[in-house]
């Protein structure tokens, strides 16, 4: 939230960019357009007196000069339009948090010094610094910004020492953006661009449902610069077409879909069928037995992902064309939106013996993954409690029904 103590003089208030369709400026208390391809929120200190000029007009000029996207870039400015009064305090606060939470990038420019102590800026930075949507700029002579710059270095937040450099960092992250309308505007680009979100949204749209609003609650990001979203949580407001109501009390949690393989040696009795599982340590549960499988950050066909994961985790080299496709289902529909792409392959006695001979650990080189292949009898898995219900369900899909949806 801006550092406010009273109205600014008109000469220091931020003006609009009227007439520029590519960049639309939305001032404090105003409503944004119903569609855009990208959005920025200009966070940082607001002058506390008419003698100190706002930095935001220069930021807007730089944005206008540099934005070359194919559609509308909305810039949220937490200062009133030139000549307009400040909104009532609580309205101002609500407006800032609402659109700062939803902007594709939050631009922090912190020229902390006399007339701009940036007290509320500290709270804003604390709210959004771990969101994956922040760039930080501080001039060399800014006061008391060592903590912000140090945290940014630790968490891979892009940092600049000039205002134009800070704007460039934010625009580079936006790229060409992506068109969003209505409630879709509430989904920041870093999650909008993930296949897991697009898969969830496509299923809602196919059912006739509509995303009305929402808020990104959390992301878990991976990569050297924490640039890839692996897991996200979004508080969605969805109009449920079949019930003609709006559901607002749940969070959508999702990660990339996974591909798993039931590698087995059939027997005369289903209970005697031998299957290949892997034993692996999972932080929520300790050591578990599960199907070999995993996900991909790219766009490889899931059949190929399944074959690669089977090889990495069990040592079996199986050509993708040997894998038989089964249904694609959620693993825990009330908990997460991601799905399991299930495949199966019948093994020879020699292949089964090769798995038995592996002492492990195996897993993806260079990661923390360690897997220990195990050959188990299906009847023993049914009788014991060594595998979870999801794994048992996948085994039943292959060994009992034998249906093929490919």
Automatic annotation (TrEMBL):
Keywords associated with the record: Hydrolase, Transferase
Keyword Ribonucleoprotein in annotation: no
Limits of the Nudix hydrolase domain: 253-406
Gene Ontology MF terms in the entry: hydrolase activity; transferase activity
Domain of life: Bacteria
Annotated PROSITE patterns: NUDIX
Cofactor(s) in the UniProt record: Mg(2+)
Pfam family, one: Nuc_deoxyri_tr2
Biological process terms in GO annotation: nucleoside phosphate metabolic process; ribose phosphate metabolic process
Name of the featured protein: Nucleoside 2-deoxyribosyltransferase-like protein
Origin organism lineage: Bacteria, Bacillati, Actinomycetota, Actinomycetes, Pseudonocardiales
